[in-house]
Amino acid sequence: MRALVYDEYTTDDDFSKILKIKNLPIPEPRSNEVIFKVISAACNYDDIWGMRGKPLAIPLPHISGTDAAGIVTAVGNDVKNIKVGDRVVSHGNMSCRVCKACTDGREFDCKKRTIWGFETGPLWGGYCEYTHLPEVNVLKIPEGVSYDDAAAASMTLLTSWHMLVGRAKIQPGQLVLIMGGSSGVGSFGIQIAKLFGCTVIATASPDKLEKCLELGADYAVDHRKDDWHKEVRSIAKKIPKPYGGVPSIDVIFEHIGGSHWNKELTLLNYGGTIVTTGATTGYNAKTDLRHIFFKGINILGSTQGTRSELEECFYWMSKGKIKSIIDSVYSLENAVEAHNKMLKGKGLFGKILIKPNLD
User: Fold this and answer.
1) Using an 8 Å Cβ cutoff, are 229 and 263 in contact?
2) What is the architecture of the domain spanning 2-141+325-355?
3) pLDDT tens figures, 268-299
4) Does domain 159-301 have CATH number 3.40.50.11540?
5) pLDDT on residue 274
6) Where is the Enoyl reductase (ER) domain (predicted)?
């Protein structure tokens, strides 16, 4: 089979130096595993971290790709609920399944947790023609959801759902600020907040504001302006709050970090919540503690989510209530271009897909 492989890290983000297409044997299933032909896979920022070898020195040689969807071609002897011919998608959160956190329904807190296609290997990810996963790490794709939509949603929709529903526990009528609404997680964040009956302010670069509104955001603000937070505050003051509540942000969906952090804290209501995953513009953010203790702010961290939550996500996708936003599709041969586009972010709205066999 053909696979996208790298044997060394890049020190200057020149992905063309390391990414190579190689011919590898088609994997054979272990007793608990499913083999599937990859129809579509989705890019994530951890692909770039992997190629850099930072912040983690991931196994080499490496095949990236955490989100993959395809058709089952073989199953192990102990596989019970998946059969050859099923349409499946990966659940990339791999955990031990027996520790206290896992058996308490918090596999995302498992100390042995790894992200498939990022931390796993060598040569184990979704950017190849055939891949393998334990049965517990694949889900059947429901009717009405395409391979492309499933791949684009697998980790990103799950992350967004866990942030807003599992961690922040959003409620109807709340005012929710979605940072980076044009990103994969941001585009799903907008849709989830609207599904729950919230008013949504999304931030994005100027060329993507209209698309955030088309996706369902009630307001859209350019977060590249130095005083973007003042515009958000001005909007919040004009929005009627139920039961006479304070006109401020109830929940902030955060994955940008960097210089935005303290500005975000100033926007939160008393008892408000900021839930964060990742920090694409920098993780070493300074915090003015007065914003936290004076208003009783809740700061929540979040990583991926549970298999059960992913099933909820695909239920709503199958009902047409949540959709994947796909920016562009690339072949394995054009993977360098795909990763450069993700790194630069210019004009990017939604997910980038890579297909092993792009017709």
Assistant:
1) yes
2) Alpha-Beta Complex (3.90)
3) 999 999 999 876 666 777 888 888 999 999 99
4) no
5) 96
6) 17-354
